[in-house]
Design goal:
This protein is an alpha/beta fold and 312 residues long. It folds into two domains: 3-130 and 265-293, 3-Layer(aba) Sandwich (Rossmann fold); 132-264, Response regulator (Rossmann fold, 3-Layer(aba) Sandwich), CATH 3.40.50.2300. It has eleven helices and twelve strands. Helix 3 packs parallel to helix 4 (96-104).
Amino acid sequence: MSKSRLMATAALCALLPAASMAGEIAVIVKTTNSNFWQNVNKGASAAVEGQSEHTMTFNGPASESAVADQVNLVENAINRGVAGIVLAPSDPEALTPVVKRAFESGIPVAIIDSGLGDAAKGTYQTFLSTDNCAAGEAVAKSMIDAVGTEGKVAVMSYVAGVGSEIGRVGCFVDYLGGNSQIEIVGPLYSQSQMATALNQTTDVLAANSDLVGIFGANEPTAVGMGRAIVQAGKVGKLAAFGFDGNGDLQDFVKDGTLNATAVQGSFQMGEMGVKAVMDVIAGNAVEDFIDTGVVLVTKDNIDTPEAQHVLY
């Protein structure tokens, strides 16, 4: 653990009121309307099973773009004096002030999935995430393996500026730019809406008949992208890669619509995030960063234990 995080944890422990040593751990995610975040819920639930000291609540706004609603959920958790918070911030800047307020209130916070801005350093105890940059590069390498080093590749992204998107899409694009002559179309932003991604992909496919590859960078975006590929009769005619691992995306891998989908350890984010908060409350040290991993799931490995452990 870094010196700055050790100091922050020590300062938080001094602030912890006796009432917060047990009680509710509030898990607040980007939206509840996603299988990915529901898998986080399953992991968080698993973390509190078999003990009676802490309970867990799970909440999130109706959509990932409803940032103000997420801020309000964190405010409400602080106001009711929860023992700890596990937060997947939808916006790195907008959530920083309320995380600072949690720290000042003596409430430990574990950040999951997407990071906060530099101004939030020292106000939360750990960050649990896929290494999104490494994940983006892994998809880019697979894209080059599939299409070569020339042609057009479209990037179907979700919400601009979110921490996970910056790493995942940014490093995908940067890797292609540094290792190929591939021309990037986009990124286009679906706001994590499947129907929007479907329409955007339909337009991209119609406007770029010479497209050799396409990348859908999160669950609703990749599902919409896959449906558009099927509707356009493009299955097998271009390399397509998704991100996340719900049933729709698994089916797309099995039927060849997608070459592969990169799947994060969403269950692990929930389980390990809640356990990290319980550790802080108990006075135990936690690491600054906990990597929850990613698996590139293909038709060849989808039935292996490694893939089945992360799919949902």
